[in-house]
Write a structure and sequence with these properties.
The chain is elongated and about 85 Å long. By secondary structure, it is mainly alpha-helical. A two-stranded antiparallel ribbon has the order 1-2. The chain has a domain at about 10-115. α1 runs antiparallel to α2 (about 60-90) and α2 (about 60-90) packs across α4 (about 105-145). The chain has helices spanning about 25-50, 60-90, 90-95, 105-145; strands spanning about 10-15, 15-20. A hairpin with a 2-residue loop joins β1 and β2 (about 15-20). Helix content is about 70%, strand content about 5%.
Length: about 150
């Protein structure tokens, strides 16, 4: 049998399937750069939320904290949009959010889902190679042992 490409990975979002190319440089960049940035910004956002709840803030401090909170919320949404576009494509992003005003929460949840699914599929792919190699090594060892070319303990 000749070479055949493996079945392309995909994720299901809102009842539709979207292709994932977990080996593409764009996808790997999104996962390693964008997703980490989203998590970092989310931590900043949570800290700002906490700061806004502190007792005794002056009106100026509260206004500044609120303004920064709004900016960080927008940053999270933009990073999420970029992550989704880099992993699924611009058309997929527009289709997913058509008729819906995207929020930072929507973006974080969807990004986490895409990331989790991609890692699950990547782990399954790596495991299939490891298991395949293990089966091939065992078969070769059994064949060598039967032919006398294999000695225990080596």
């Amino acid at each position: 049998m000749g070479f055949e490409f493996r079945k392309q990975d995909s994720v299901e979002i809102c009842g539709r399937r979207y292709a994932l190319d977990i080996a593409s440089p764009e996808f790997i960049g999104a996962v390693t750069e964008d997703f980490a940035a989203i998590l970092s910004k989310y931590n900043v956002f949570q800290q700002l939320q906490s700061d806004c709840m502190k007792q005794g803030l002056t009106k100026e401090d509260m206004d500044a904290a609120t303004k920064r909170l709004i900016e960080e919320n927008q940053n999270i949404a933009e990073l999420g949009r970029d992550f989704i576009i880099r992993t699924l494509g611009k058309d997929a992003y527009e289709e997913i959010f058509s008729g819906r005003v995207p929020s930072s929460v929507d973006h974080i949840e969807l990004c986490a889902y895409i990331y989790r699914e991609a890692m699950r599929q990547r782990q399954a792919l790596v495991k299939s190679y490891v298991n395949k190699n293990r089966r091939e090594r065992r078969a070769a060892a059994r064949a060598a042992k039967k032919s006398g070319g294999f000695r225990e303990g080596l």
